[in-house]
């Protein structure tokens, strides 16, 4: 392809074009430093400004106060599956999980590996993880309640976050952080691999409530302690500078070009409605998630046969629509429409889907 | 600065200009994918080719065979300080360390945190880590012998690696991997944060001999096990794609533009000699490392007073030479001359240093 495609990848995923253009423009000389952002010391004023701005914009966009730290940790959400119970679950205390698919299952597995007292209080495995459970009882004495806010593989999403009384919420928001405003104070910790909605692969954003830090055991390896990151503004060792820099540009775009999370939410709803309306008004396409649990980020659907699905993905690619194949574990089709995938891309896809149905349906 | 400076940063550090230009050129459309490398799926043919090429080039440049895995892990060398003993030291077995400064000390600390049976068989702490110890006895039954091949802060470097009989060597080569050819088979594991000699911050290259994998305990957290990375070509979860991509470009530059590690070594020696010759022929500049232990990568030196050092760093910056301030823990001056800092930059610095001495000496 000599021109850019419409990118519906599940992650790593589309980035806003203005962000890519800014990176490109200043790649040889960042902010008059005479160096690329890839060459600038993390101990310099230049990088200090970058990371401080990323923290500031995160707090501003999510409307969070100084009760929280915003830190950046390498290893993706997968590293957080392990760090969260290691840091925040005292050995005998119970920890609650809600299982909504592959990512929740991995988080549960890592808590079990550490011998934590895991209690899965609800699961949608009985119907192939096609819905978000709404009937569960949180243990009053749980260290926290963990859930995955959006499930990229099955295309489900929490539209109202669980209520847990005084028990802190912990959530993997890798695939939908910054998609809309929400009430942060009930969360003890939020983590998000950047490569879906806020940046490139290679870093997780972690938002941690300060009272959680009292639980961090003294004797953990340095790089596995949240306090190592909160005490040094994520720079106890060299941070993933370029990934943090790109996140900051994405947040700036969200703030200044989009106009904040209310507006982002309005656009995201409009995008999702276009695709779900098309699916619902068709006998050819079939949504795979229960309607009340449908994701605004990952629209999963099937065609009448696997043969047609293969044909659909191939013809779409030829027409300039990438990333429409479903996750290798479930097959089918999936259009991931994160923040950076714009309305025009979604409208063009809907038109293509309409045409494909006419020709092949 | 509107033009690029001569970059003597200790890390993140200079990258080869042709590499930066290639990144810039294809930033909006990588290899005809219609996407930025920042947007390409790690499960795609495009990224597969990138990571496979990076592994292939590493093996080719270092002349290593299939007895070794080359993997990429997030968290920098600091994460390897913790992972190496966790994976490779059975609980009661002794593990040997040679302490040559801050980085070795951190590696030792992490093994101690895990309650490992640590034996520091030599240290140069008695003379402020200004030399490389040459008198030590490796324990025959040690799990491995760990050493730091180059010490960025004090400017010392191993010119002949320690001999340990059948005991596997483990080395932190963050600041000098790929500076010259060396004999890899005695090493059980080599790790290197990329941001000094081979790429940007945000990834460590790990070279592990296959027999070491038999030691990896079953019950470790998934993201802390070397086998998680060796079994899935570093892609059990989303890897730091952009950092791996940049490493591959640096290795291609080393291979195709420089002509391999023999030639790189010749250039590196020439660069270091220019600066050390200037220092040795001057009463104004004074090298801080013992002559036989001097680093080819980090030339550390003092001026007659701290006032002159401050003036030197400032005037150098104004003249377009960046990164010459010594590490905040030791003061003084330091010129880091990794692979990507070319001969012209070093010659220009030597000229500046000569002039400064004339004017201020």
Q: How would you characterize the overall build of this protein?
A:
2 copies of one chain form a homodimer. With 361 residues, chain A is α/β, with parallel strands linked by helices. Chain A has 2 domains: 18-258, Type I PLP-dependent aspartate aminotransferase-like (Major domain) (Aspartate Aminotransferase, domain 2), CATH 3.40.640; 260-360, Aspartate Aminotransferase, domain 1 (Alpha-Beta Complex). Chain A is 35% helix and 16% strand. Chain A is built from 9 helices and 14 strands. Chain A has helices at 17-25, 45-62, 76-88, 102-113, 226-230, 241-258, 261-280, 306-318, 343-360, and strands at 6-7, 68-73, 94-99, 117-123, 145-148, 150-151, 156-157, 169-172, 187-193, 204-209, 286-287, 298-302, 321-322, 333-336. In chain A, the strands form 4 sheets. In chain A, strands 2-10-9-8-5-3-4 form a 7-stranded mixed sheet, with helices on both faces. In chain A, strands 11-12-14 form a 3-stranded antiparallel sheet. In chain A, strands 1-13 form a two-stranded parallel ribbon. In chain A, a hairpin with a 4-residue loop joins strand 6 (150-151) and strand 7 (156-157). In chain A, helix 1 packs across helix 6. Chain A is globular. Chain A starts with 5 loop residues before the first strand and ends with a helix. The model of chain A has no long low-confidence stretch (mean pLDDT 97). At the A-B interface, helix 1, helix 3, helix 4 and helix 6 of A face helix 1, helix 3, helix 4 and helix 6 of B.
